[in-house]
Amino acid sequence: GENVEQHPSTLSVQEGDSAVIKCTYSDSASNYFPWYKQELGKRPQLIIDIRSNVGEKKDQRIAVTLNKTAKHFSLHITETQPEDSAVYFCAADQGAQKLVFGQGTRLTINP
Amino acid sequence: SAVISQKPSRDICQRGTSLTIQCQVDSQVTMMFWYRQQPGQSLTLIATANQGSEATYESGFVIDKFPISRPNLTFSTLTVSNMSPEDSSIYLCSVSQGRTGELFFGEGSRLTVL
Fold it and tell me: Dmax over Cα atoms in chain B, in whole Å?
């Protein structure tokens, strides 16, 4: 089955700097890669996703890149703000709309 | 996106008891799933709740421990049976919507087993 590895587990950046979180997956049949943001005590919220027919997708300050050959994808957050502090999870589909999640990255934005 | 309501939002349970979590969606959805998030951990899929038939369980999860019902396209329940402290987790209902199949989560049910 699918296995998703996520790095780093924790990330601390200065406000205004960029943050990058990376994930690798094992199943070449996966073709849907969402990213979720989970604030403390809240539900995971979908923030951006990408499908295998594109290499990059951007939505304001966040972007996701996908390299299907290498089986890795990354989340990029630019001009970070304190409200970006949260745990971020990458995921990959394993068919039938089921997702396998990475281990999570705790992002802290320092003012 | 659909509005997903779970209850209870949290509960404290005694070892050996069972608790049923309810998930209600404000629109009909094809796919409903139950995930578990242990403290400080990632999300793990327990099972797919199939409308009108038995749920499909992932490796490591069994029906006797986590019986699931899905009587219609808007409602599902997950029971955590014969609980032990290791079952202390957040249990999340999720639904897949739309043509592109994005997955959305309920608020979760935080269970603490003493």
Answer: 43
